[in-house]
Specification:
Elements: E1 5-7, H1 12-18, E2 24-26, H2 32-37, E3 45-48, E4 58-61, E5 64-68, H3 73-78, H4 80-85, H5 87-94, H6 99-104, H7 107-113, H8 120-127, E6 130-132, E7 137-139, H9 140-143, E8 144-146, E9 149-150, E10 160-163, E11 168-175, E12 182-191, E13 194-200, E14 207-208, H10 210-218, H11 222-226, H12 243-261
Parallel strand pairs: 1-3, 2-3
Antiparallel strand pairs: 4-5, 5-10, 6-7, 6-10, 8-9, 11-12, 12-13, 13-14
Bound molecules: flavin-adenine dinucleotide.
C-alpha cells in the first residue's frame, strides 16, 4: 500500500483549488481506480468529484446541449432531452461498456482520460463541441492531443461540455467484444452543407476523416462514405486487428453511421 490524501469537496471551485501539485481527480473511478491499483498513477492527493452536484446534469443553452462533467453515461443514454436533440449522442452513451460501466463512468472522466478507443471523443470532435473548465473554454478540435493526452493543464477541471445540435448525426463502432471499446468507431454529423466525420480507435487519438467528409458533403449516403479508400499509414495495428484491417473498417463504419443518421 501507499498513502495519499483524500479530499471530497462539494464545489467545483473547492475541487479546482484542492488539485495542486501531483493531485488527481476521481470521477467514476472506471479508469482511475485501475491506474491506482497498478501504480500507473501515484497521486499525493485524490480529489473526489462525486459530491459536487453542480458538475452533474443536462441542460440546454442557446439551443445547444450542455452536459456536466460528472454526468454518468447511463444518464446521457436515457435523457429525453438528449434523445430529442442529438439522438446519436444518447445512442453512443448507451453503447459504452456494460451497465455497471455506464452507471459509474462519466463524460468528464472519459474525455480527460482520452483513451484512444473511447467513444465520446468521436462525438465531441464530429459535433464541434466546446469543453469548459473554470479557467477557459477549449474547442474539441484542439482538445485531444495524443495517446491518453489532452490540452488540459495539470489540475485543470472539466466542468461541462457544450454540444451544438446537428441536422443529422450517427455513430457506429465495431466493438472489441470483451470491453466494447471501439476497435474502430465513426461519428458523422451534418450541419447544413457541412459534414464532420471523427474516427476513434484507429490512431493514437481521435481524428477527422476529411476525405470522407468531402465525399459526404457531395452526397450524404452510406455508399459515398463506404467508397472512400483510407490509407493504413499511421493507423494502429495490434492483436485485435492490423493497420490495414482498421483502415478498411473506417469507411465501412462511416457508411453505417450515415445509415443510422438517415434513420
Ligand atoms: C470494462 C470497461 C469497459 C469500457 N467500455 C467503454 C466503451 O465501450 N466506450 C468508451 O468510450 N469507454 C469505455 N470505458 C471507459 C469508461 O466509460 C469511462 O468513461 C472511463 O474509464 C473513465 O472513467 P471515469 O469516468 O469513471 O473517470 P475516472 O476513472 O474517475 O477518471 C479518469 C481520468 O480522468 C480524470 N478526470 C476525471 N474527471 C475529470 C474532470 N471532470 N476534469 C478533469 N479530469 C478528470 C481523472 O483524474 C483520471 O485521470 C470502459 C471502461 C471499462 C472499465
Amino acid at each position: 500500500m501507499y498513502t495519499f490524501e483524500y479530499q471530497n469537496p462539494v464545489s467545483a471551485a473547492a475541487a479546482a483549488s484542492a488539485a495542486r501539485g501531483d493531485a488527481r481527480y476521481l470521477a467514476g473511478g472506471q479508469s482511475m481506480v485501475q491506474a491506482l491499483k497498478l501504480r500507473l498513477a501515484r497521486p499525493g492527493t485524490l480529489v473526489d468529484l462525486n459530491g459536487i452536484a453542480e458538475l452533474s446534469g443536462i441542460t440546454s443553452v442557446g439551443g445547444n446541449v450542455v452536459i456536466g462533467a460528472m454526468t454518468r453515461h447511463s444518464e446521457v443514454a436515457r435523457s429525453a432531452d438528449v434523445k430529442k436533440a442529438i439522438p446519436a449522442l444518447a445512442d453512443l452513451a448507451g453503447g459504452i461498456g456494460d451497465q455497471m460501466v455506464r452507471n459509474q463512468g462519466t463524460l468528464g472522466g472519459s474525455i480527460a482520460n482520452a483513451d484512444p478507443a473511447a467513444c465520446y471523443p468521436a462525438a465531441l470532435l464530429a459535433l464541434g463541441a466546446t469543453i469548459r473548465t473554470p479557467q477557459r473554454t477549449l474547442s474539441a478540435d484542439n482538445f485531444f492531443t495524443g495517446l491518453f493526452e489532452t490540452a488540459l493543464a495539470p489540475g485543470e477541471l472539466v466542468t461541462s461540455v457544450e454540444f451544438p445540435v446537428p441536422d443529422k448525426a450517427g455513430y457506429f463502432k465495431f466493438k472489441q467484444p470483451a470491453s466494447r471499446f471501439a476497435l474502430v468507431g465513426v461519428f458523422v454529423a451534418k450541419f447544413g452543407s457541412t459534414v464532420r466525420v471523427a474516427v476513434t480507435g484507429a490512431k493514437s487519438h481521435v481524428f477527422r476523416a476529411t476525405d470522407i467528409e468531402a465525399a459526404l458533403a457531395k452526397s450524404f449516403t452510406p455508399e459515398a462514405a463506404a467508397a472512400v479508400k483510407v490509407s493504413a499509414e499511421g493507423i494502429n495495428g495490434d492483436l485485435h486487428g492490423s493497420a490495414e484491417y482498421r483502415a478498411a473498417m473506417v469507411p465501412v463504419m462511416a457508411g453505417r453511421a450515415v445509415a443510422k443518421a438517415l434513420g
